[in-house]
Amino acid sequence: MIDVAVRNNVKVIGEGERTIIFAHGFGCDQSMWQYIAPSFEKKFRIVLFDYVGSGNSDLTAYSSEKYSSFRGYVQDVLDVIESLQLKNVIFIGHSVSSMIGMLASIERPDVFDKLIMIGPSPRYLNDGEDYFGGFDRSDITELLDMMEMNFAGWASFLAPLAMNAPESPMLTKELERSFISGDPVIAREFAEVTFLSDHRQELSHSTVPTLIMQCSDDSIVPIQVGKYLHEHLKNSTLRLMEAKGHYPHISHPEETIRDINEYLGVNLL
Questions:
Q1: Phi/psi of residue 24, each to 5°?
Q2: Based on the structure, what is the number of domains in the chain?
Q3: Does a structural domain hold residue 44?
Q4: For the AB hydrolase-1 domain, which residue ranges apply (predicted)?
Q5: What domain range is 224 assigned to?
Q6: Facing residues of 13 across strands?
Q7: Catalytic pick from 246, 249, 252, 259?
Q8: 98, 218, 236, 259: the active-site residue
Q9: Cys-Cys with 28: which of 32, 58, 97, 227 at CB 3.0–4.6 Å?
Q10: What is residue 127's three-state secondary structure?
């Protein structure tokens, strides 16, 4: 019998009846929610976890075969939900976790109440004239090669680009440390699955009400992607944030908290 709580380093905090699951993005772990999660503790039960291969998860549970597509990560989410017998889940996913959460909600719409996507993208690669994802295939190949040849160099290159907060160098350093703390082989495999994925076809199957939080200047996810998602996701709301970068929950926590509260109709004062 798998102990999901141990495997995925599950933590449950908070006092509310409604449940928020916070799902971290690539190269991160649950600690990335430290700047916004405490603001929801009084009104919600909060579930934090690490995907297998990230943070303090059980690395022995990782297999390249299982996690060669989003399917393995979707299963992690569904396992956490089932192990805690959760219902009416508000799923807040950052970056790649936005699509992972959406896919989980398509499989089990009965247990999801709302999806909140921070910096989501259904496809990072450009696709002809019809779709601008922000990256050419050569960009991703270069990134993956860099991860393989110089993992520390990759982390120090990507962190400032992704954080885009030159006025807060400590936040960039924190992200760089998070990147480099992971297993290089697992991190590269997760990056490949993430950046080469294409989940545009599944968008029409998503029925759960969704908030798309799009940053104004995001080097990972351009504004066109947020607009594309809004057009193709039923029941979706697009919020264009003043925040820059790909990690508004770290660099602009107040705005992130405010936007989430407004969408959920909650007054946290």
A1: -75, 165
A2: 1
A3: yes
A4: 19-253
A5: 4-122+200-264
A6: 46
A7: 246
A8: 218
A9: 32
A10: strand
Annotated catalytic residue 218:
yes
Pairwise CA distance, residues 233 & 204, whole Å: 6
The residues of the chain scoring below 50 in pLDDT are: none
Residue 15: per-residue pLDDT: 86
The enclosing domain of 244 has a CATH number of 3.40.50.1820
Residues 156, 162, 163, 167, CA torsion sign: positive
User: Which pLDDT does position 266 carry in this prediction?
Assistant: 78
Tokens at 179, concatenated: 């990147």
- Look at the pTM and tell me if it is higher than 0.90: yes
Q: For the chain, percent helix, then strand, then coil, each to nearest 5? A: 45, 15, 35
Catalytic: 205?
no
| Confidence at residue 119, expressed as pLDDT on a 0 to 100 scale | 98
Domain assignment present for 175: no
Q: Let me know if residue 173 belongs to a domain.
A: no
* Angstrom distance (rounded) from CA 91 to CA 115: 5
Residue 159 in any domain: the answer is: no
Among 29, 54, 94, 95, which one carries the catalytic annotation?
95
